[in-house]
Write a structure and sequence with these properties.
The protein has about 170 residues and is α/β, with parallel strands linked by helices. It contains 5 helices and 7 strands.
């Protein structure tokens, strides 16, 4: 007689959450204000405003943009604001900062859309491996979002988890 093979993982009350399912879509690119500096050092207001009026901002349509200035120059805050004004009609999302700052903002936006009530009282396993590069801060943000409602939180795969949190009884 053959023993029936039982998939205990499939029968488990664990819910597997994969941050790759929340991976923000869209191309990421950097707008470097250094290209607008006179002699690589100074931002001339009239020249910059002329550039902003004539530049083809439609090339940023649907894209996620990180706004930086990689040159060691004093750039007035209004210059970054003016870039934001012109990017707004086209870019999907934009931030002041490098690509890591952009990635963090995009993930925070996605994780902010999660309804934690869907996971109230549940046992959650946050998947740890995948094909997409999920930054550590996304795992921390997800943990912060879920802790108030979950019964337990684990990391890994349902067949091999690292326990992180278990709600105290009582």
């Amino acid at each position: 007689m053959k023993e029936e093979i039982i998939n205990r993982v499939a029968l488990s009350p664990l819910i597997s959450l994969d941050l790759a399912d929340f991976y923000p879509e869209g191309e990421r690119l950097v707008y470097d204000l250094k290209d607008n500096l006179y002699q690589g050092m100074i931002l001339r207001e009239k020249d910059f405003r002329d550039f902003a009026k004539s530049h083809d901002w439609s090339q940023y349509a649907g894209k996620n943009v990180a706004i930086i200035c990689s040159a060691e120059a004093i750039v007035p805050t209004w210059a970054y604001m003016l870039l934001a004004v012109h990017l707004r009609p086209f870019a999907r999302y934009f931030v002041f900062g490098d690509l890591a700052a952009l990635e963090q903002a995009l993930f925070q936006e996605k994780i902010g859309q999660i309804d934690p009530e869907m996971y109230r009282g549940k046992k959650i396993v946050v998947k740890g491996c995948g094909d997409l590069p999920i930054p550590a801060f996304a795992y921390v943000a997800l943990t912060q979002k879920l802790l108030p409602v979950v019964a337990s939180l684990m990391y890994g795969e349902p067949c091999s988890t690292v326990p992180l949190y278990k709600r105290p009884k009582g």
